[in-house]
Each structure stands twice: as structure tokens, then as C-alpha cells.
Amino acid sequence: MAKQYDVLFRLLLIGDSGVGKTCLLCRFTDNEFHSSHISTIGVDFKMKTIEVDGIKVRIQIWDTAGQERYQTITKQYYRRAQGIFLVYDISSERSYQHIMKWVSDVDEYAPEGVQKILIGNKADEEQKRQVGREQGQQLAKEYGMDFYETSACTNLNIKESFTRLTELVLQAHRKELDGLRTRAGNELALAELEEEEGKPEGPANSSKTCWC
Amino acid sequence: MDQSVAIQETLAEGEYCTIAVQGVLCKGDSRQSRLLGLVRYRLENGAQEHALFLYTHRRMAITGDDVSLDQIVPLSRDFMLEEVSPDGELYILGSDVTVQLDTAELRLVFQLPFGSHTRMFLQEVARACPGFDPETRDPEFLWLSRHRFAEPDVQSPKPREWNSDPGTRSGFTPIGGGRYQSRNARRGLEDVLLRSSSYILPGGGATEESEFLLARETLGGGTVGGRSARGGLRDEALEEADREMSAGGGSRERDCAGGFNLDSSRPNGRGLLMDQNSGARCQDKPDNFTRQNKSKSEITDMVRSSTITVSDKAHILSMHKFGLRDTIVKSHLVQKEEDYTYIQNFRFFVGTYNVNGQSPKECLRPWLSHSTQAPDVYCVGFQELDLSKEAFFFHDTPKEEEWFKAVSESLHPGAKYAKVKLIRLVGIMLLLYVKQEHAAHISEVEAETVGTGIMGRMGNKGGVAIRFQLHNTSICVVNSHLAAHTEEYERRNQDYKDICSRMQFSQVDSSLPPLTISKHDVILWLGDLNYRIEELDVEKVKMLIEEKAFQTLYAYDQLKIQVAAKTVFEGFTEGELTFQPTYKYDTGSDDWDTSEKCRAPAWCDRVLWKGKNISQLSYQSHMALKTSDHKPVSSVFDIGVRVVNEELYRKTLEEIVRSLDKMENANIPSVSLSKREFCFENVKYMQLQTESFTIHNGQVPCQFEFINKPEEYSYCKQWLTAKPSKGFLLPDSHVEIELELFVNKATATKLNSGEDKIEDILVLHLDRGKDYFLSVTGNYLPSCFGSPIHTLCYMREPILDLPLETVSKLTLMPVQTADDRSQLENPMEIPKELWMMVDYLYRNAIHQEDLFQQPGLRTEFEHIRDCLDTGMIDNLCASNHSVAEALLLFLESLPEPVICYSTYHNCLECSGNYTASKQVISTLPTFHKNVFNYLMAFLQELLKNSAKNHLDENILASIFGSLLLRNPAGRQKLDMVEKKKAQGFIHQFLCSPV
Ligand SMILES: Nc1nc2c(ncn2[C@@H]2O[C@H](COP(=O)(O)OP(=O)(O)OP(=O)(O)O)[C@@H](O)[C@H]2O)c(=O)[nH]1
Ligand SMILES: [Mg+2]
What we know:
- Chain A is of the alpha/beta class and 212 residues long.
- Chain A has one domain: Rossmann fold (3-Layer(aba) Sandwich), CATH 3.40.50.
- Helices cover 35% and strands 23% of the residues of chain A.
- In chain A, helix 5 links the parallel strand 5 and strand 6 (146-149).
- Chain A has a 6-stranded mixed β-sheet with strand order 2-3-1-4-5-6, sandwiched between helices.
- Chain B is built from 32 helices and 30 strands.
- A 7-stranded antiparallel β-sheet of chain B has the order 4-3-2-1-7-6-5. In chain B, strands 10-11-9-8-21-20 form a 6-stranded mixed β-sheet. In chain B, strands 12-13-14-17-19-18 form a 6-stranded mixed β-sheet.
- The chains are: A alpha/beta (212), B alpha+beta (994).
- Chains A and B meet through strand 1, strand 2, helix 7 and helix 8 of A and helix 10, helix 13, helix 14, strand 10 and strand 12 of B.
- The complex binds guanosine-5'-triphosphate and magnesium ion (MG).
- Magnesium ion is lined by residues 21-22, 40, 63 of chain A.
- Chain A: Pfam families: Ras.
């Protein structure tokens, strides 16, 4: 069995109220979807263990309140994150416009080197679409982020986007991880096993005694 | 906010608070807020000494009155403040910094807020530590003694009194006993005040302990002398290190059981006698030795192990050993093994050869490579590899290499092999090889030895073993050389039992107990077991052999008899013996022993097995080899090994991990709140409003607490309190929380001006869980209470009749602007509200006994306030005492006292000099001057009736002295001299005509 070790990351979901942050999280961790909107008033989190690159990663995913009046407080949670999902709703032009504001908050409050990824959620709502796919791509490009259109409803790109952000975080911290990995290698080559054996040494003496 | 300012106010001359930080003192489960101030003192010779001053404090420590000295920790040479990672908690970026403060006498643990300020604080403390330069003198901390002696007076560790709150009226304190006798008897105004005081001074527990003790928490209880306590610690640490070193130095495989160690036998070379002594010693302390071995193996494991606890250096990542979780995953995997593995046969060659101390002289192929198919695994055991004394005493023998080479060269030519392990105890050696292609599937290889020879411990007899994992099957191979001589079969049984009980393999996970032989899926046991043929004489035995009547002969085999009697090798199987006994031949021939002893032939060399899915393909001796007085024996097996189907394995693992995640998420504390939005409408000055809600807990016990928002020093605005603000909830239980809103003089002015609003968000935090936001909204009705004098003078209409913007504008207007009368029109000389109260008293209370010394009624105060604020003065109907109290409250609530802060010191200086005093009064801003003169005139009026109302100059001076004159630093506990001067100042004006 491969040696296991754990890395813990904190990922954060932000974006306007109603874009589907809580649903994304529920789909990813519990594979569930709720069609009613119970606005998150506070900060919630769930754990999930995934394997990326052969590394077992435990991610703590924080779901924040999207409502504007709580933003002064939720911003304060950014500094704990290593990766951030910026979520808008493809059926809401307004939520897309607001991404700019969210990004600037991230720049101000999140730690340097935080990894970001842009999510256009509710991709299943094609008939209500207000934000084109290209618009999302364009914006992501501007900010140098990866981009996914997802649907918590139909389970589209959920695992992919979470895995991708985790990967990005791993990559950003590759140095520290490599340090761990070399020390962690437990599959010693057999050559090494042989090396380990001490060669006989000391004076050889042939005088015999029977101990039977 | 820089709290060092508040601390500075409590310090004596020469002491300087360089930096302060607010932290949480953790004692067991208790958490108490403390201010930590680093205080520097400059000695006469220019040297500096430092100490940490720890204060209990109010929610927001602004002035010296808000803090109370709790403890002083001098930065002596043994002082240490270190960052530690809290036990059992994940290290998470951005979380609080936990620091441990150590001195010889005490240990305290604090949590400090994450951020640069804390960093700076820690750096400053580190810099202030005296260091170990022998040149500099040890700091003496003589200056700290003053805090010790001043303590009972300066601090107020006594249960807090209602009037110790700056928000109420400490000005009355000197009047003392006479006032408010009935305060418990009726629910008066002071009742509210009492409550309001506890708003500002949270955490009753904090003050109970605010006695100053230099060394309160001694390590390990009792008062141990500082130095010696520390010395003791250090010794222990050294011992620990020692143990580790000796453990590290000792060889794991060649332990005590293997004989004597070099140091005891070599230097004096006294030979056997000495060696036996050390052997005895060795036997005395077997536990000790195994412990050392154990700790060494732990060390190796730690080096190898992958879960590295993160130190503070890894600020970006948080890695943690989820030991328990791993164990759970593993045990689930074991339970579900059949879901993701299948059985695959591997061919094992097992051989045993007692070589009688000889070197290899002939090719071993006839023994090792007799079958056509190349085995997957070779387990090759030797006994009596070297019979020399040196081998016995020093463990070194050239034979090891010789035989290893001989075996390696004679392995089946049809495959390439890799050596996995070689283990030897004196003459007992075991070699394990696998086909190279299987090497990657071999893991957890461990080897151990057990000596059962001389003294029951020595290595001339005993066993060696190698355990390993082949794919998912655990295998243990044992090679033993048991006691000799026909009659000693019981000894052999005992040797077997000893090997079984003493052979212990350490596990990769050092937290698990060591493995024993029996804990393996497959056990292969080979060796010179030395069981003989009994009851038959030599000739009879030889005859039966001649006739190849092995079955008949087998009936007399001691091993068979002992196994049948279940005294040895229980559960093991042996194949049928179809070959003649392998002992004892004349070396170099196939002839039976012709020596004097003329030993009877015996099946000494045997192979047994235990486990499932094992089938023996052959079991034979190899007569062609003539090097020894024994013949080698071999057995070939097909052993069914559990091989992992990677895809199924991953699926199973994922399932397990998913179910664990689910369990874990279900274990995150979670509650539901009956209400999350609270609206407080028409909040009035000093009128308590309460809203309540219920926290219903889910299935997980949880601890809840309202936490500070970042950059804020309390969990909510100053006018709000949650009761209780923290607590513990059992599963399915609930608690009711009351939110109390109370505006007092500290908060009223900003609410009047609109700088502050009845608006707040509270963060209810569950320990290890979520955060819930609660929002508080509402509106405040401005009041004359808390409004500046000049503002009120410009309000010709009742404050509640004015638009909010006007109230705001007038409240924010600086007093200088107000004085410049060209700016605005028609201000009044004094606030109409003041006039209303004074006029009322003048009309109704001029003869009132104990005026200003009896408490008012709360309800009446509310009525008075409303009358003043709405201007409906004609409706005013209240007792004289209530109006008098309202007047005092009014004066107290003025954000700028009647005698402006800036004039305070001037006034004290010229107290006693009436002319100068009058001069100072004339410099006050006009409205303040007006109010002062007006009040003095009124008080003089009262004094004229002292025969009726029993007032005198002293009483009035003491009541009004500290109301009209307030220390700009905001201290309420004036020292007596200051207090006297303030009273003296007022006294002059009461005695002389204005
Ligand atoms: N059609 C569709 N609806 C979705 C999807 N994701 C979320 N929703 C719906 O959008 C609404 C809001 O979802 P939430 O996840 O509660 O929104 P939120 O971003 O957490 O909102 P706040 O907690 O207020 O910040 C709910 O009614 C969901 O059912 C999706 O992928 N497709
Ligand atoms: Mg939500």
C-alpha cells in the first residue's frame, strides 16, 4: 500500500448571493442538490478528501455569505484561504459584473499567492443565459484564472473544478511538498536494502568450539 | 488601538510600556482575556530591565482605568516566550498564534491574534530578553517591588462595586455609607446602573483572580526554588537525550540476545569468565534492552514516516498527521480485503542446512535449483555456520559472506533474484530472495533474532526470522536451531515457545504494538529442530532406514510425538517424510556417523508451515551434498498470495474515504438559531432593551462563543451585550441568549451625532465549526443626555423635534465655533434642559432634606428624560430626588465637562487661590462659563437653606467637585490629593459671592 500523508488546504467559495455557492459545495461533498435558496448567513465549511497527483489532500471548503451587508466580515476570512472560487451565475449579468469587485477584495484581503479560479454556475439554465461562455473565458483570461462553467444541478464540471483548484494550490506549493515527498518515500529500492546490510568484519578465527 | 497607552497610565515614573497586545490566557479549559504589556525600566546606571505586565481589562481598554494589573513576569535570564503549535489542533494559516511563556517558576499559555502586531510584540520581547552574556549583571528587578506593595491600594481586586464603573458616577464615592441604603430594597435607578457596569466590565472571573502574584503557577505544584526546578527539568532532558543516543548506538539485529557487546568484553580481554558476567547482566535487563531497541526503531520510523508535523516555518501549508484517520482507513481496508484482492500462487523454495561450521566446498545447485521451474521466493536457512568462539562472542564471521555468495550463485538460473534480507544470530542465518519482478511488491520487511542458548539467551541456539509483506499477504519465515541431545526434547519445546514469545517485529506505524510470529497469514518454519528418534537402538533405526520403512520409523520421531501431544508447533503442518534422516553422516560421505559417539540417525532438519492456501509440492533431502555431517533439506510450496486489483482497490478506498468524510462532516458542530435579525426601535438613553433568541444544538456537543470581528476588540458594539456570550451545548439541547442594548454616556454622544448607529453584526462561532452572523439594527432617539453644552445652547427647540441632521451637525460642532457667536444666531445662555431641572429644584426642592444624596427612581428618570427631550416640561412630575439625580447624570454625561478638560490642571493648581480661580473660570468658553456660574448660584441658593435641607459646602463641593472637574485622562479613581483640590476649588465658589 502506498504510503499516505496528508496535506490540508482551505478553499473558499465567494460570489453574489444566490449564484449557487452552497449548492456547489453540497454537490461536491454530499452529491446532493437543493432547489430552494436558503441564503447562507455566516460561514460554513465541509471537509473532503481527494487524491491529486498521488497525494492525498484533505480540503476544507468554506462557504461564505454572499449578501452584500456581510461582506465586510466575510472578507476577513479570505486570508485563511489558499484557493478561492469566484462564482457567478450565467443567468445573471449582474453577478458577472460583480466578479470585478470580488477580485479586488481578494487582492486586498487574501494572502499573496492565493490561487483563484472563475466559475460560471447554473450552466444548465441555457434558456435564461445572460452571460456568454466567451465572456466568462475572456474575464478569466484577463485575470489569469482558469475557467469552468458548472452546474450544481446537473453535476457538470463540479469534481473537475474542485480538483483543478486543488491542483493549482498544490502546484503553487510544490517546493514545500517536494521536500515532504522525498522524505516520505518509503519504497526503498532493493539496491538500497542491500546497501544497508553490514559487511562482515573483524578478525577471522577458525578455532572451533562445539556448543551443542 | 494602541493599548500601551492605557497601560502606560498605570505605570510609575521611569517605567515605559514599549508595546502591548491583547491575548487570551489559556488555563486548562478556561480562556481569559489579558493585556500583555512589555514594560521597560531604565536603571540609574543606564542599564535596562524588562518585565511583562499582565492586565485584566475591560472590553475596550482605552485608559488606565480600564485595566487592572494581574501579574508581573520579569524578563529574567530564564524567561522564555516561544511560539508553540497547540496540541491536537490543526495548524492553520491565519489562526491565532499560541505562545508559551516559561520561567523557572511558571508556565503560561496565551493565544495572540494573528498578524504583524503580534509578530512585532514577540520580536520586541525577544529583544528585551537579557540573554546569557556573562559580562552583564543579572537583572535584579528591584523596581518591581513597588507594584507589589502598592497593590492593595492601587488595584481593586475586591468584588467590583457598582460605582467603580466610569460609566456611572464615581463622583459620589466619598459620600459613602449614607447614600443608597435602600438599594436592594427597591428597584431603583441604580439597579440599571449596576447592570450597566457589568456591560463594560466583562467576565467576572477575570477580576476574582486579579491579585498580584509574582509566581502563581509553579511547575508541578508546590513552591520549588526557581533554579532547582529548572535544573531538574534540564537533567531530565539530558537523560532523555542520553537514552536516545544509546538506543541509537545499539544494533537492532544484534541485540543482547546475540551475545555480549564489544565494550564489556574487549578492552580487558578477560575472556569467558568476564563474558559470563556480562551475560548475566544482560539477562537481568532484557526489558531495558528491548526498550532501547524499540526506541531506536521508533526513531527510524519517524525518519522514514511521511507525516511530518508542520512547524511554524511552513506558513503556507498545513500538514498534519491524521493518525487516527489513517488507522481507521486501514482497518476498513483490511475488513474489505476480499473486495479488491484475488489469490495468486507464488512458488516458494524453503531450504535448511546445518553446515557444521564448514565453508562452502561444493556447488549448492543440487539443493537450491533441483526443480525445473524457478521459484518466486527463496527462503534459505543455515545452522552452525561458524562454530568458532569469535563468531560467538563478536558476531563477526567470514562464513556469512562465503555462504551468502555460495547461495546467490546457486539460485535457479532461470530467473534473476534480488536479495531482500539477510539475518544471522551467531551460526543461525536466514536469507530471503525474491524474483526481481516481485521486488516492488515486497514491503514492511523486518528481521529479528532470539537467542535461547547458554543461559537461555545466548545465540548458539535460538532462531532468526524475517517477516515481510508480499502483495497483501503477510509472511513470516523462521529459521531455528533448537537444543541438542536426544533426551532434551522438552528443552526443544521450550526453545520453540521462547522463540514464539520473544520474537517481536516493530511495525511501520510505531504506535501499533509489535508483531509476533503468529500474527502472519503465512508462517514457514525451517531449521535444525534437533528432534531425534527415540526408543529404538541405533541398529534398529539403520535397519528400518535400509528398508526405507520411513513410516514405521516416523512413529518414533520425537517431533511427530510432541506435535501429536500438542506441546509444540501447534497448528503447523509438515509434509510426509519420504527421505532418510539427514543426521548424522561422516563428513564428505553418505556414511552414518562412525565416530565414538556413534549417534543414531535422526530427522533433525525439517520444514513446517501454517496458513491458508499453501500446498507442498516437494519435501526432500539432498544426499549429493557432502560438506557437512547433515544433509540439506528442501521443500517447494505453492502459496496463494492476496494480490491487489488496483482498480478495485481504488474504488474500495474511495468508498471508505467518502464514508469517512461524510462522518466527519456530520461531526462538525452545527446549530440552528430561532432568530437572526434583531431590530431595536426607538432606543433611548439609559433605557434597557432586550431581545432574545434560542440556539438549538444539533447532534454534536459544541462550544459557542460570540467572537471579535477582526480588528475589533469586542464581539459587538459597546452598547450591546449578549448574555451569555459563550457556553457549551450538549446534543439536542438549547440555550436562550439575551441581547441587551443599553446606551450610556460613553456611547450616547456618537449616537447623537450619527457617527455611530444602532447597527452591528455579531459573529456566533462554534468551536471547530461554523460561524453564524446575527444582525442588529435599530434607531436611537437623540437625547440631551450625552450632548455637549454648546450644542444644547444652540438647540432652541426640544432635541426630539429637530431633524436628525441638525442634531448631528450641532453635536459635531466644535466648541470654539460655538463661541464665535457671529456664526449662528440666537443661542441660549445655558442649555434649556439644565435650566428646567434647576428651576424645578429651585421651585420645589430648596428645602428638601438629603437632596443629591438619595437615589432617584428609574421610572421617574425615564419620565424626566422624556420631558426634557420633548420639551414638555409642564408635564414634569417627579420626586425631588429623581430630578436631582437626573441633574447629576446630566452633568456626568456631558462629553466635555463644565470645566473643560484643558482647564482641569490649571484649576487644580490655583485651588485655594480664589482670585486666580476666578481668573481661570473666566477663560472657559462662554457657555461653559455660564453653566458654571449658574450652577454655583443655584448651589449657593441651596446653602442659604441649609437649616432645612442640611446641605453644607463640603457636601456639595464633594458631589460637584468631581462632576464639574474631570481628569482629562479619564481616570475616575482620583488620588486623594487631586480629589481634595477639586473639592477645594468648588468650595471657594460656594463660600464667596459670584
Ligand atoms: N438551475 C440551477 N440552479 C442552481 C444551480 N446552483 C444553484 N442553483 C439554485 O440557486 C439558488 C441559490 O443557490 P445557493 O447555493 O443557495 O446560493 P448561494 O450562492 O449559496 O447564496 P448565498 O448563500 O445567499 O450567498 C438555489 O435556489 C439553487 O437551487 C445550478 O447549477 N443550476
Ligand atoms: Mg449559500
